[in-house]
Amino acid sequence: MKNRFLVLLCFFTLIYSCNKKTHTVDSPQQGNITIATDESFKSLAEALTDRYMALYPETKINLKIEKEDLGLLDLLDNKVKVIVMSRDLSEQEKKAYKDKVDLDLIISNFAADAVLFVVPKNSPKESITIEELKEELKSDKKNIIFDGNNSSNLNFVAQKLNTVPNNLKFSIISGNKNLISQLDNFPGKIGVVSLNTFSRPYDPESENLRNAVKVLKVVDGEKSFEPTLQNLARGTYPFTRILYFISNEKYFGLGSGFIRFSCTQLGQIVVAKEGLQPYHIFKREVQIR
Q1: Which tens digits make up the pLDDT trace of 183-208?
Q2: Highest CATH level, class, for 113-240
Q3: pTM of the predicted model as reported, rounded to 2 decimal places
C-alpha cells in the first residue's frame, strides 16, 4: 500500500512539473514571442529584433509581416504580443483594446518615418501640392499608386487628409519595393512608399531602389518640404509619421523588454543606422583633456 502511494505521488509530481514547464512566463532575457509589423517598416523591425536577440541569445522574436489593421486585430486576439503602428487609433479601436486586452492603452514612440511620393527618375515632375494630392485621390484616373489595401501608407495618408481609405480612388501594386520596380511601366503615375523602404544609407539594395525613382517635394501652402532627417525631427515635412509600439502584455515580459530596448540608447542607435530619425535623442558627452 505504501509503495502504491509513493508511485502515485511521483506520478502526480511529474505531471505537475511538466505542466509548470509548458506555462513558463517569458522575460526580457528569455522566451519566444511574435511581433506584427507592416511591410513598410520591415527593415527597421528586423534590425531592432536582430540586435536584441544578439544581446539576449535565449530570446526568439518572430516577425509577422502583415497589414497594419490586421496586426491590430491579432494583438486584440492575443495572437501577437507587440505591434508596430504609424497612424492614430480611432476611439472605437481604443475601446476595443480596453475591452479585450483589459489594459490602459500605452503607446511607445521610437522613430520618425515618412510617407514618400515617388515618380520615375526621368519624370519632369519635381513636387506635389497637398491640394493636388487631394484632387488626384478623387479622380477616376487613379494616378496615385499605393502598396495595398489596409497598408500603413494608405491608412496614414487618408488620416492625414481627414478622410478614410474607402473615400479615395487609387491604384495598387503590392509591396513597396515591387511598386518602385514597376513604376517605370506606368508613366504619369505617382507611387506612395515608406522612407524605410530604402532609408538604409549603405545598403546596396536600398541604394538601387533610391536610384530608381525621384522623390517629390511636398508643397504645403507657400513652402515645399523634402523628407530629410532634419525635417522629420522638426515635423515640418507634412507626411512625417511617428512609429510606435503597442503591447498586450500584462507583465514585464519579453515584449516589454524589447520595447524598452528600442526606446533607449542602444535601440535608438539602430534607428539612426536605418536612416530614420530616432524619437529619443540622447546627448553625446565628449570630454576634452
Answers
A1: 999 999 999 999 999 999 999 999 99
A2: alpha beta
A3: 0.89
